[in-house]
Design a protein that fits this description.
Length: 228
Amino acid sequence: MNIILLGPPGAGKGTQAQRLEQARGMVQLSTGDMLRHAVAAGTPIGLKAKAVMDAGELVSDAIVSALIGERLDGSAGNGAIFDGFPRTQHQAEALDLLLADRGRKLDYVIELQVDEEALVDRITGRFSCAKCGVGYHDKFKLPRVEGTCDACGAHEFKRRPDDNETTVRTRMAEYRAKTAPILPYYEERGLVRRIDGMASVEEVARQIDAVLDGEGAQQPGEGRSLQL
Ligand code: ADP
Ligand code: ADP
Ligand code: ZN
């Protein structure tokens, strides 16, 4: 199964993708994580991407599509969770070609619907384990033992330089202008399932499971914009 998690910054894509990796052996493909690794490693792509990311704007379609292409084969077993990709119509079309070349297809596009004002709180409280990358939140998801990562026991945490209120406003505007408009492309194919991203992490997970296990209240094709 190959799915896209779609939603604005802070919607919960990474949190849910990490859980699906654990629960289903799927592979999270996060272009944001790939780009941050490239920046940290000082690769040519990282050098190009850093200023764009710090400004909250989108990195070029060619760069992110190439990054996904390099990683796609590693998710062939139990499937891929696309997290933060595609973000433009061009990327959506590039993904279709990459999958078709490998005889694979998309099963669902899961849209996490969230209230924009809550996102600022989510983003400014976000931090993650410096060693294993598991995500936390100052208010909503603290480690069970203060200062110790639940997953790996490390004591070092980090925050993203772009997780500040000014940059997040730009990232939301980018989402509205360039990413939300790709939904109809998937609606036409009956792939979109909408989930209440304002619910608790556990409830969102339950709703995603219901979709993936085919127990969603929504029937295939429902929610598709009818073009009469
Ligand atoms: P995204 O990958 O969509 O940008 P994240 O999964 O990183 O979003 O979530 C952003 C922040 O909000 C993280 O600190 C995470 O712990 C927290 N978070 C994620 N989902 C929820 C939720 N359903 N309720 C409250 N906080 C959440
Ligand atoms: P979030 O989890 O908050 O949605 P990401 O980690 O996915 O953010 O992305 C962080 C930044 O990396 C973006 O603001 C953008 O600059 C860049 N980026 C990540 N994925 C893409 C993409 N698919 N296309 C263009 N830029 C991207
Ligand atoms: Zn850890």
